[in-house]
Amino acid sequence: MEEQMMQIERNMVKNLLEWKISSRRKPLLLKGVRQCGKTWILKHFGEKYFANMVEFNFDKDPGLTSFFSGTYDTKRIISQLSAYSGKKIVPNETLVLFDEIQTCPNALYALKYFCEDAPEYAIAAAGSLIGLALSAKNKIGFPVGKVDIRELTPCSFDEYLCAVDPVMHDYVKTIPLEPLADPFCGKLSAYLSEYLTIGGMPAAITAFLETHDWNIVEQELDSILQAYEADFSKHAESCDVQKLMQIWHSIPAQFARENRRFIFGEVRHGARAKDLEDALQWLISASMVQKVCAVSSPEYPLMAVMEKNTFKLYPSDVGILRKLARISATVIANNQDFFSGFQGRLTENLVLEQFYALGINPVCYWYNRKGQAEVDFLIQLDNRIVPVEAKSGLNVKAKSLKCYRDNHHPQLAIRASMKNLRLDDGLLNIPLYLLGELPRLLELAKTSGLK
């Protein structure tokens, strides 16, 4: 399906251009959740920025594996691939795309030799479940240190806005750190309502932009969910398939609780971590879910203080969460108070998704050991820890954020809500529809006197 996507401008292109011109370029390995647009963006990039491109799909053409048996002679491999495709592969001028490379472990390992022996060839590889190959104990091994690994996320709201209203998108890129005029707030809120309903999967966005038919959008999302669940049976160990289904379908119920920490016993009565942790790691490696760990003592770096056994679990896409929860598209799209009820739970998923799209990682959450307060997210910006409260709608009362600020005195705190843009005494209130501008707005905050 990815090759059928309309041209949605992806911010990843800038990242790919940096890879292309790097003097230390290694073969590129692009991972990401299934159907987030990996194949499309590499083909689009190759067609636009290289003299020519040649694609090899190991899933569609299993015979390709024979070229990677025996020795890893890169000259032989290139010669055979060139002859097989009927296209001359020219160093630095041809993008060689290996798609679904995880189905051919020998080809994955061959990237090591392209890095060492033939760096002049531009090799880019992608796969629906490439994250599993990174974590799997396969017989061939993984070319550690010999590939540039990048991750493509579902489309961010910034990318959606660029597709639906390029003029507004360009204007947003120029706004100063001050409240927006009400007409802009209203228009951007309407676009956000659409995005919250559709999510960031390119196929679903394309369906909406081409038809404006919510039934078609629902069909696209249903197809994606079916593909995800088909992957459980096709790629997971047979003993884990039922566990994967149980964890996956328990996510809405976990979200519905006031305390949304992931509880294994909610997946299956009496289940413990050791019973389900392999299946959970499978979902994480496949980029289908994001694990956000708890922190009680916020210190830099977050990786050193996160509590890995206490966490929340978020689907990689807010549209997928809506479908898992069986919330009708029209409930949100036709409701001005689109953050009410369970829809309000989508806010956190929305914020987390935008953070990952910006490359902000790791993301944790903070809790007070006395159980009195909990802040939705902690992120690292430079060498500082920044608390982030995700608030739905215009109700921005945040006792937990105040508790955090009173106890830990951060130089900056962020409240993502539907309130207008404002910086006040170290608290940046940023509308949910402006999260894509967070890095630029933070730079403006520094110049305005925030130290």
Which features does this protein show?
451 residues, alpha/beta, eight-stranded mixed beta sheet, five-stranded parallel beta sheet, 13 strands, disordered N terminus
Question: Can you give a write-up of this model?
Answer:
With 451 residues, the protein is an alpha/beta fold. It is built from 18 helices and 13 strands. The protein has helices at residues 12-21, 38-49, 74-85, 105-117, 130-135, 157-164, 166-172, 182-198, 202-211, 214-235, 241-256, 264-267, 273-285, 318-324, 329-333, 346-357, 399-408, 438-447; strands spanning 28-31, 52-57, 94-99, 122-126, 148-151, 289-295, 307-315, 363-367, 374-381, 384-390, 413-417, 422-424, 427-431. The strands form two sheets. Strands 7-6-8-9-10-11-13-12 form an eight-stranded mixed beta sheet. A five-stranded parallel beta sheet has the order 2-3-4-1-5, sandwiched between helices. A hairpin with a 2-residue loop joins strand 12 and strand 13 (427-431). Helix 6 crosses helix 7 (166-172), helix 10 packs across helix 14 and helix 11 (241-256) packs across helix 13 (273-285). It is globular, with a radius of gyration of 23 Å. The N and C termini lie far apart (47 Å). Residues 1-5 have low confidence and may be disordered.
Please tell me how large the radius of gyration is.
23 Å
* Uncertain segments: 1-5
Ends distance = 47 Å
Q: Into which percentage range does the β-strand content fall?
A: 15-25%
The residue-averaged pLDDT reads 91
Task: Tell me the structural class.
Answer: alpha/beta
Largest sheet: 8 strands, mixed
Shape: globular
